[in-house]
Amino acid sequence: MTKVSDIGERRLIERIMRHLTPMPGMPIPFWDDASALSLGDGRALVINTDMLVWETDVPEGMTPFQAARKSVVMNISDLAAKGAQPIAFMPSAGIPSDLKVEVMEEIAKGFDAGAKAYGCYVVGGDTNEACDIIISGVALGVMEEDKIMKRAGGAKPGDVLATTGLFGLTSAGFKHLLEGCKLQDDGKNILDSIFMPEARVKEGLALAETGAVTSCMDSSDGLAVSLFDLMRSTGMGFLVTEPPVHPDAGVFAELNMLDPVDLALYGGEEYELVFTFGPESHEAVRKALEKVGCVLHVIGEVVAEKTVTMLQDGVVSPVRSGGWDHFKD
Question: How far apart are CA 221 and CA 229, in angstroms?
């Protein structure tokens, strides 16, 4: 018998999908960030579910409030990647029977704060007994169906590859929390990236309005693995020419004798949007993001060959598909 740890999360999903019947006319196909149902009036209900398990997903130092808020961000980020405005969040919480009631109240406050930050509400949920705290959330949003930004949205060679932000802070934070690497100064920016992350909802809405995006997804599993996921969906490859390393991650890397590009590529939980668009739309995309206070970060281009590579010092080398996998070390 094959164990889940032998094949990893993505190959497990492939095995599961063999037994599922796709719903006819789904506005968003399988292998995307979220799902959707057509409402029949030109709009779509965009839905996402994501899970947070205390033992594996909540590092030391994170409060119950922060963890619950993060569970909202995890779900809403996938709606943002489709360009949907969140309207509701529903959490189900499995909890040990001996959990202190005050902890559950802090979790409820985190749910409410996370939802309000993105203009939506907690509209219900469920509780059950479990051996660990497990939060499974469902986020719902509504948008015009023809504006949904899909992973397989039609990217072609020569398109611009871009992100809504820089990477490496969460990698640095986890290396500090789990491996004892040193932080510069108080490390607040690095630790906040883990304890108080933000979803790129305004940015997703702005990008969807341009109509220029040819593929899009969120980067919650890490930049490198996100590029490989986009490659599978688009049938295109990517050449990274400007690794989007956050300056604080660069300082952290120097302090701990680490590779800053590795920190940027192989992290996770950053919740930036990774997307492509035609070069003729560069100015429109830049202005749309600028209006919501976001800088457009161009990091490379789409190529015809199904590979993910990086250009550094005049040398093109392959990028490995590393990142977060729930079932592998």
Answer: 10
Asked, for residue 325, whether it belongs to a domain, the answer is: no
Give the whole-number percent of the chain exceeding pLDDT 70: 98
| Residue 179 forms part of a structural domain | yes
pLDDT band for position 28 (cuts 50, 70, 90): very high
Residues 201 and 177 in one domain: yes
Q: pTM higher than 0.70, yes or no? A: yes
- At position 195, the amino acid (one-letter code) is F
Which stretches within the chain are classed as H helix?
A: 4-17, 54-57, 64-80, 101-117, 169-179, 188-195, 201-210, 223-234, 247-255, 260-265, 282-291
CATH code assigned at 19 = 3.30.1330.10
Q: How far apart are CA 31 and CA 328, in angstroms?
A: 20
Judge whether 164 and 297 are in contact, CB under 8 Å.
yes
Left (φ > 0), alpha (ψ -120 to 50) or beta: where does 248 sit?
alpha
Q: How far is CA 157 from the centre of its chain?
A: 24
Edge-first strand listing for the sheet containing 308-312: 213-218, 273-277, 160-163, 297-303, 237-240, 308-312, 315-318
Q: Are residues 143 and 164 in the same domain?
A: no
Pair 177, 236: CB distance under 8 Å: no
Q: Are 134 and 177 members of one domain?
A: no
End of a domain among 147, 171, 186?
147
Phi-psi region of 324 (alpha: psi -120 to 50; beta: other; left: phi over 0): beta
47/49 Cα distance (integer angstroms): 7
Kindly calculate the radius of gyration of the chain based on its CA atoms and give it in whole angstroms.
19
Q: Decide if pLDDT at 325 tops 70.
A: no
How many domains in the chain? Answer: 2
Strands 273-277 and 237-240: unpaired
- Cα of first residue to Cα of last residue in the chain, in angstroms, is 20
Q: Residue 236: which domain range? A: 160-318
CATH of residue 296's domain is 3.90.650.10
